[in-house]
Amino acid sequence: MQIDGETKIVVIVGDPVAQAKSPELFNALFERYGVNAALVPLQVPPAKLGAVLDGLRGIVNLAGVVVIVPHKIAAAAYAADLSDAARQTGSVNCLRREMDGTWFGAMFDGIGFVKGLDACELIVRDKSVLLVGTGGAGAGVAHALVDAGVASLDLFDSNTESLQRLERALRSRGGTTLIRRSMPAAQAAHDFIVNATPCGMRANDPLPIDLTGAHPDAVVADLIMKPAQTRLLEDARARGLATHLGRYLLESSVETMAAFLRLVP
Amino acid sequence: MQIDGETKIVVIVGDPVAQAKSPELFNALFERYGVNAALVPLQVPPAKLGAVLDGLRGIVNLAGVVVIVPHKIAAAAYAADLSDAARQTGSVNCLRREMDGTWFGAMFDGIGFVKGLDACELIVRDKSVLLVGTGGAGAGVAHALVDAGVASLDLFDSNTESLQRLERALRSRGGTTLIRRSMPAAQAAHDFIVNATPCGMRANDPLPIDLTGAHPDAVVADLIMKPAQTRLLEDARARGLATHLGRYLLESSVETMAAFLRLVP
């Protein structure tokens, strides 16, 4: 890749940001398309997010911002307009800089997760899913699973407020998916078991889900990207269960996000 | 070059910025040193400079900002502290982000210009120089020429205020260099004839200096980098005079600036 004065810029904001895989994935995509654009990482503490986003709005050749932990909910408040998924989840993972210098916020985590499963020929329609974690990432995944027609969605979060908010939002959509409250423990009925909590990013984190009761054909997915093999996924493999890595979510949404930012067709 | 989550970021702010050569030069330097850093261009309109610099201050992995036209004077006001050359010229071409999130401003244009001449074995000590243009770039070059021991410095600017400010600043330094006011016309006594105005960036710009009276051994230098061959340099070549390109200034100061930003030894 070659950066020159005419390069369009995308940034990723997170804290930390060192673990982010978006720079490699987006820059490889730009190279593949022959697009003169580059994505660079910016480590932004929560207290500085507002000032940083206000500043970035003033940059003419900035296409947009990829938003990761812990900014997904806070960043939504800076968007002048939001996509349906961003509105449903109250969070964004991408801000596009519009011509007038305002942000349009979107959330591709959920659709990226479902696309990532699709790419591995794992179909969620009519299946039963346990989802642990109902923050920004979990909410995005929950709405996308409902969009994809899962039969039932069992939810857990130790943060009751977050859990209730997501339950209400999912139920207000109507549709046929059963929305239930659950324990963070797999049951034989679950086809998919999904960790959407940050628990597992550090080596000493406890297991976010008890897999003891899981069906032998269940698929265990973790949204965490680094480490690639979380303790939960290791536990699943030790039990002979199929696993699905966090990076598939991002890999499946990078092209969608670059198109949203109007950098690739 | 490969950008990942741990890459340190430097930005260049200008308006326009498409013509900037810093991205290629800095990124090649980082590659040569095996440093995980990248410089990216940001097009920032003057009205947005304050907000952009305030935002950039909040980015932990931002090493600093390279500042080009038209922001060199305005950006100095955002620095908590200034180098001698920045103070003398009232302008900065580089802001380093300190640990506490403040900016330290420095100006390397002048020393870069003299270093660029040195690299071409063009020695200014005890020589007579005509300098046209006394804005940020011109002032930086003027102070560096005095530092380098020129015998006389003839100054012109159509902006009398800018001209008087520079005359006062140079005279207040004491020393032996003759500081004189001049017309924008070469005389036989001038060893070096320097354009530090933006006149020549556009194809239809008038000539900033009349070379009719130039000595056949005079060297004509232009600080403009794009186009490489300005109308002034073409006129000089047509008259058989030696020429010195604008890009030598930048090429000679890139390593100094990267060291100032603490990215190379």
Record the SSE blueprint.
The structure is a homodimer.
Chain A: E1 8-14, H1 22-33, E2 37-43, H2 49-56, E3 62-67, H3 72-76, E4 81-82, H4 84-89, E5 94-97, E6 103-106, H5 109-119, E7 128-132, H6 136-147, E8 152-156, H7 160-171, E9 178-181, E10 192-195, E11 219-222, H8 231-238, E12 242-244, H9 247-260
Parallel strand pairs in A: 1-2, 1-3, 4-6, 7-8, 7-10, 8-9, 10-11, 11-12
Antiparallel strand pairs in A: 3-5, 5-6
Helix pairs in contact in A: 1-9, 5-6, 5-9
What do you see in this structure?
Two copies of one chain form a homodimer. Chain A has 265 residues and is α/β, with parallel strands linked by helices. The first copy, chain A, has two domains: 8-107, Leucine Dehydrogenase, chain A, domain 1 (Rossmann fold, 3-Layer(aba) Sandwich), CATH 3.40.50.10860; 110-249, NAD(P)-binding Rossmann-like Domain (Rossmann fold, 3-Layer(aba) Sandwich), CATH 3.40.50. Chain A is 33% helix and 21% strand. Chain A is built from nine helices and twelve strands. In chain A, the strands form two sheets. Chain A has a six-stranded mixed sheet. In chain A, helix 1 links the parallel strand 1 (8-14) and strand 2. In chain A, helix 1 (22-33) crosses helix 9, helix 5 crosses helix 6 (136-147) and helix 5 crosses helix 9 (247-260). The radius of gyration of chain A is 18 Å and the shape is globular. Chain A starts with 7 loop residues before the first strand and ends in a 5-residue tail after the last helix. The model of chain A has no long low-confidence stretch (mean pLDDT 96). The interface between A and B is large, with 43 and 43 residues.
